[in-house]
Amino acid sequence: MIPWRYLFTLSRPRFWFYLAGPVLVAAAFGAGKPVDLLDGRLIALFLYSLLPANVLLYGINDRYDQDVDAANPKKEEREARFKEGRAVWWALGLSAALSLALLWALPVGARWWLVGFLLLAWGYSAPPLRFKARPLWDSLSNGLYILPGVAAYVLLRGEAPPAAAILAGWLWTMAMHSFSAIPDIAPDRAAGIATTATWLGARGTYGYCFLCWLGAALAMAWVAWPLGLLLGVYPVLVALIALRGTDVHRAYWWFPAINTGLGMALTLAGLGRMVGAQ
Fold first, then answer.
1. Could you tell me the CA-to-CA distances from 35 to 27, 30, 31, 234, 274 in Å, in that order?
2. Greatest pairwise CA separation for the chain in angstroms
3. Where in the chain are the domains?
4. Are the beta carbons of 26 and 159 closer than 8 angstroms?
5. Burial 222-256 (b: 16+ CB within 10 A, else e)
6. 82 with 63: CB under 8 angstroms?
């Protein structure tokens, strides 16, 4: 019997839009006219980023984190520990095959950004690189989340987004990753795993996230100041969480909804720009 429920949990449904959301935002800003949004390759890229890319990313992560996850209570509540089995390997193999098919379908300029995503998705969790166990590298490598979005923009525009927009997205992912690692400080230290969060401690990681999110807001303001104001919500939010002593284990689970709301606002802004230009 195929363990559909486990495979669904493995893909982290709360986080699907962390990969698919940047594709929507990039498509909204990259499209010159509404019909561009019906490009079959764009739709395929969005659907890939919604599920197969998440199965691949988190499947690789959980495969190489089995020892670490054994002591992580989060895996008993909203996530799941990796389970060996034919269906799981078939799911990972199918996701990898869909990655190759999408690479073949995309134009060369967009293809390389997706290659970057795949390389970082592997290098983040798997040895010998295993960036996730290297302080600062774990944070830096999480720029992988915006790369499908950059590919979508290149697909529609034939060129990359403004460098400041890529920087803003990259800094945002760095902060989001490090913030999400704060609840894991204790189990990671117990397992002997070194991360940016275990290196800086909770207090230092809050400060690191504040600086990264502030940098993201300033970089996006360079592109368009209203967009910078939207991203400015994050440094304010993390400062309030830190200063008020809010339980980070609870606050962490606010962010899927917050991030989805912000992504929707950015997407609507992009669509409004496109309609206004008609």
1. 11, 12, 8, 33, 11
2. 57
3. 4-277
4. no
5. ebbeebbebbbebbebbbebbeeeeebeebbeebb
6. yes
Q: Are 51 and 16 in contact (CB under 8 A)?
A: yes
Q: Sort residue 192 into left (φ over 0), alpha (ψ -120 to 50) or beta.
A: left
pLDDT in tens, 144-157: 999 999 999 999 99
Q: State pLDDT tens for residues 13-52.
A: 888 889 999 999 999 999 999 999 999 999 999 999 999 9
CA distance 267 to 244: 32
pLDDT at residue 81 above 70?
no
Please state, in angstroms and rounded to a whole number, the distance separating the CA atoms of residues 10 and 251: 22
Closest CA to 125 of 78, 169, 68, 77: 68
Asked if residues 269 and 226 have their Cβ atoms less than 8 Å apart, the reply is yes
The amino acid occupying position 4 is: W
- Pick from 216, 265, 195, 205: nearest CA to 238: 205
Q: In terms of CATH architecture, what is 4-277?
A: Orthogonal Bundle (1.10)
Q: Which of 98, 24, 23, 86 is nearest to 55 (CA)?
A: 98
